[in-house]
Design brief:
Largest sheet of chain A: 5 strands, antiparallel
Main location (chains A, B): nucleus
Structural class of chain A: alpha+beta
Number of domains of chain A: 2
Protein name (chains A, B): TF-B3 domain-containing protein
Function (chains A, B): Auxin response factors (ARFs) are transcriptional factors that bind specifically to the DNA sequence 5'-TGTCTC-3' found in the auxin-responsive promoter elements (AuxREs).
InterPro entries (chains A, B): ARF_plant, B3_DNA-bd, DNA-bd_pseudobarrel_sf
Subcellular location (chains A, B): Nucleus
Order of helices and strands of chain A: HHEHEEHEHEHEEEHEEHEE
Oligomer: homodimer
Number of helices of chain A: 8
DNA sequence: TTGTCTCCCTTTGGGAGACAA
DNA sequence: TTGTCTCCCAAAGGGAGACAA
């Protein structure tokens, strides 16, 4: 049993350096794919804009997503207001190495009272999330994820997003290459066959399904980027939460870390970094006018 | 492809409640299995004893184990000494849900100067880790982990640890049930066959190997507990580190959380919780005499 | 004593059209 | 239009002894 896409039949997984985390920093994750995966309700504030950050809300969200409960008291952070008005210095888009779920890393800097008095013209006011048009998203059926056979491509989706088939061939078929969020390539046979005729992805599909551990109810989405590359993203259905950082940090440290980092930044007006998971409860970075 | 042990051929995986983390708290992980997995160099301090805790060392260790680098400055914790003399209030043994690697959760309380003056008689001084005798540990070979065939049991190990076979049968064989660190049961066919004769685990073995994602170089260990149950633990070979808590906490928060929790506890003499991973660099909870 | 190989046969599962919702 | 089924055949894989380190 070989779950890696580097296996014979599947697409070639490029050799990974020791730390995938580091390598990911170096290449830019496709913004349209990120937004397509995040969904139409998610928008990222623009760099330079002012945002409201709620440390307590964020802490609760992390707590919920890791299924951890507090074991002891949380220290009080008298310097930590319920909400911080911050300037957004940096946003980078990421995808979890295990699950392909998208998240963003943001560098925030709390604004001093003086800076808050400064006039502020928001450069772009709430730039709505630009959902790409040249894409399709399909929720996987039991047949799509079964071991017998491949993926049934909705007709309009195939016609809109996949390169046109050569219908002089019998049957019409081609090889598709698609890059996932980490830049790994996956190879699929795209064929138009059956009675009645329909578009299917066959060879390569089941390797993708098992490598990404997709099940019926999860969604896949295909999209073309500006660089004429086919991209492939995932939206996982909600399911029993994974319990992530066991054996590394106690839940106390996790909570306190988040609050302490914000408190320290607030008292020194220095930058701090948060992870924004668009899939959690409504996150509390909001656009605001200074 | 079904990787769960609840599948037809394998042992029955008991129904899991929504949160495995919580359920694990309720049952007591077998101490001998924990120590066998942790190895002979690891010993846990006794509850009530005094220990030295090095927050900075712990922080660096977590940093190394998660492959995360700091993105911004760490605040200074003026109240946080380089080492804290603490009383150990609680120790619980755990195993990572993903990897089965053992770790311990400890509740520490920094001692006040007054308490430090109190006479202190260590109840048990450095109780050496009690390695069980009725156990064996084998490093898996390429054959043990290949898809063709099962697990070759070293002869003495099988005779010492497995129930004796009925040699009047031809071939002698029995069914073994073994519980892993999470209490899940795995079923194996134990047979004595071949030319020359040897002990083998066949049916059920490959399901275990793929479910636990074991590879050649990893080790398995079998042990009997007081309750007459066969237990099954894992020691993984060192390999490229997993990058654990991505998309949950920034590395900054992780560092700061650990230090801030210790600093807060130190200044208030309140209890705090740490995770002790015996596999990392020598950890810095040391026995000490008050 | 035990790790690897190869052989044999069962099981799994890709890939096709049939058929029905 | 597309989800599921079944059929057919290729590939994967378990379980056995052979053989050698």
């Amino acid at each position: 049993m070989n779950l890696s896409p580097s296996a014979a039949a599947g697409g070639g997984l490029p050799d990974q350096p020791a730390s995938p985390e580091v390598s990911e920093e170096h290449k830019c994750l496709n913004s349209e794919l990120w937004h397509a995966c995040a969904g139409p309700l998610v928008s990222l504030p623009a760099v330079g804009s002012r945002v409201l950050y709620f440390p307590q809300g964020h802490s609760e969200q992390v707590s919920a997503s890791t299924n951890k409960e507090m074991e002891s008291q949380i220290p009080n952070y008298p310097n930590l207001p319920a909400q911080l008005i911050c300037q957004l210095h940096n946003v980078t888009m990421h995808a979890d190495a295990e699950t392909d779920e998208v998240y963003a890393q943001m560098t925030l800097q709390p604004l001093s009272p003086q800076e808050l008095k400064d006039p502020f013209l928001p450069a772009e006011l709430g730039n709505a999330s630009k959902q790409p048009t040249n894409y399709f998203c399909k929720t996987l059926t039991a047949s799509d994820t079964s071991t017998h056979g491949g993926f049934s491509v909705p007709r309009r989706a195939a016609e809109k997003v996949f390169p046109p088939l050569d219908f002089t061939q019998q049957p019409p078929a081609q090889e598709l290459m698609a890059k996932d969020l980490h830049g790994n390539e996956w190879k699929f046979r795209h064929i138009f066959r059956g009675q009645p005729k329909r578009h299917l992805l066959t060879t390569g599909w089941s390797i993708f399904i098992s490598a990404k551990r997709l099940v019926a109810g999860d969604s896949v989405l295909f999209i073309w980027n500006d660089n004429n590359q086919l991209l492939l993203g995932i939206r996982r259905a909600n399911r029993s939460q994974t319990v992530m950082p066991s054996s590394v940090l106690s839940s106390d440290s996790m909570h306190i870390g988040l609050l302490a980092a914000a408190a320290h930044a607030a008292s020194t007006n220095s930058r701090f970094t948060i992870f924004y998971n668009p899939k959690s409860k409504p996150f509390r970075v909001c656009h605001t006018i200074g």
